[in-house]
């Protein structure tokens, strides 16, 4: 169920000032105003004080407020409620299309509706009785009202004005007022229904008879128009045949198979009398068809007349005369044609326009009790469909007093509706249904917007998470590649080291290198921190390396490059073997450094016991 806050947010979302025609009554886009927001109590008082002459005409509330108080500023919620009442009012009074006097009274109540909705917008969509239900009752009761309906019409309009005054000037209990109005209107409707029922009972037979004869005459007139006919055929068509056709309509209906068969027999009878074509081949084909038709046509006509119990002597004599003319037709003898005098027929809507199936279906869907507006030149009439006869496709219309006003066929009504002369009026719960539909639509739209925003936010967050996950995967893959590269380098380095040491060990193990190994061992022992060596590098090359650390009395020598980065570490034995094998060399500057260092150390030892004077003597 929609909450009050949710409905107000939906209203504000729809009627945001940036999307509404600017008025000085609207707040700015941020919700604040340059001046103080007009209190709701002042706005309600303004609506209560509006004179009837202003509210009974099609003025919009926001426009009226702007004109009288251009300096007022409304909150978003108040602005949205007034804008929604204006929108619903425009639609309601376009749909309901009341007489201008009734229209003015109901329009005068729209400020009251606005006051109620300012207090609680949920009144538009909840199921409790509200002011909108009162307006629905009057909208349905006044749809057929016009001045001059007599005492009962005057009573209805007076009751409408009384209730309008009550609602405008006081706060009556809506449920009690609604119950009272329903009772009053129910009695009025019962009175009208009794009149309509008596009218329908008395008119149904007469309408059926008139309409069936009218339809039969209309069919015969249309089929014989511009055709060649003899006096005998005319006598039969306008005599026994015309008297029989309404019986078919009354018994079977205008859409029945029997009626369609009668129409076809009429067309066949008339076609037999038409001159043959000038073309010999076509004329010969027509003759063959005529022979076959003449053989069976009289019996078919006689069967239909018998079925209708229309077997009078005059009908039989007319058929005998037709058969004599049929013999003349078969023998090719000339016939004496005479002009056809059309049967009297009410063809008000016979314009020559073919009624489309969708339009005719719209008329067929009309239900008794529905109201239509009939515009007859400058005059307009409000008609209620009181009687609908499907079999003969006829309708009878009454005014609000239940008095017969008009009788039309389906085709006539379809034509009048297609030209706009007659149009359907909406009157059932127009006020409440319009507000409910509008407000619920706003809530649904706002809910969809919130959902779309949440979905877009979720999509954005999912995209960002996907990007972060992809970045993390790329980082992890890069680390794995780097680790694999380092491991490969380390493995390659270890393999190179293993190969070097194996070669060095093999060379040192040779007997002829025993003395060289001893000398190399002594050289390694003499190395000090800072000594430089050429150590083996891939592709039979050497790299300069500086001795940085000696551990455990020569068990491990650690070498670095000029930047201090570790290059390798070897034991003293491994270095000796590498020197013997020629896989490592002691840098020349390391030898000079050692000789100089030895001299310095010897000199320091000699001078350790000398006095200052001895040391400084010239």
Strand order of the largest sheet: 4-3-2-1-5
Largest sheet: 5 strands, antiparallel
**Strand composition percent:** 5-15%
Kindly provide the radius of gyration, computed on alpha-carbon positions and rounded to a whole number of angstroms.
56 Å
Structural class, by secondary structure, is alpha+beta
Helix content range: 55-70%
In whole angstroms, the N-to-C terminal distance is 115 Å
Low-confidence stretches: 18-24, 28-34, 348-353
Name the overall outline: elongated
How many helices? The count is 21
- Whole-number mean pLDDT: 85
| Strand tally | 10
How is this fold's topology laid out?
Blueprint: H1 4-14, H2 40-49, H3 52-55, H4 61-68, H5 76-96, H6 100-107, H7 110-119, H8 131-142, H9 151-169, H10 174-224, H11 231-252, H12 257-272, H13 280-307, H14 313-331, H15 357-364, E1 371-376, E2 379-389, E3 394-398, E4 404-409, H16 410-418, E5 422-424, H17 430-508, H18 514-526, E6 532-537, E7 541-551, E8 556-560, E9 566-570, H19 572-581, E10 585-586, H20 588-607, H21 612-616
Antiparallel strand pairs: 1-2, 1-5, 2-3, 3-4, 6-7, 6-10, 7-8, 8-9
Helix pairs in contact: 1-5, 1-17, 2-7, 5-7, 5-17, 8-9, 8-10, 10-11, 10-12, 11-12, 11-14, 12-13, 13-14, 15-16, 17-19, 18-19
Keywords:
618 residues, alpha+beta, five-stranded antiparallel β-sheet, 10 strands, elongated
What report would you give on this structure?
With 618 residues, this protein is of the alpha+beta class. Helices cover 62% and strands 10% of the residues. It contains 21 helices and 10 strands. The protein has helices at residues 4-14, 40-49, 52-55, 61-68, 76-96, 100-107, 110-119, 131-142, 151-169, 174-224, 231-252, 257-272, 280-307, 313-331, 357-364, 410-418, 430-508, 514-526, 572-581, 588-607, 612-616; strands spanning 371-376, 379-389, 394-398, 404-409, 422-424, 532-537, 541-551, 556-560, 566-570, 585-586. A 5-stranded antiparallel β-sheet has the order 4-3-2-1-5, sandwiched between helices. Strand 2 and strand 3 form a beta hairpin. It is elongated and about 175 Å long.
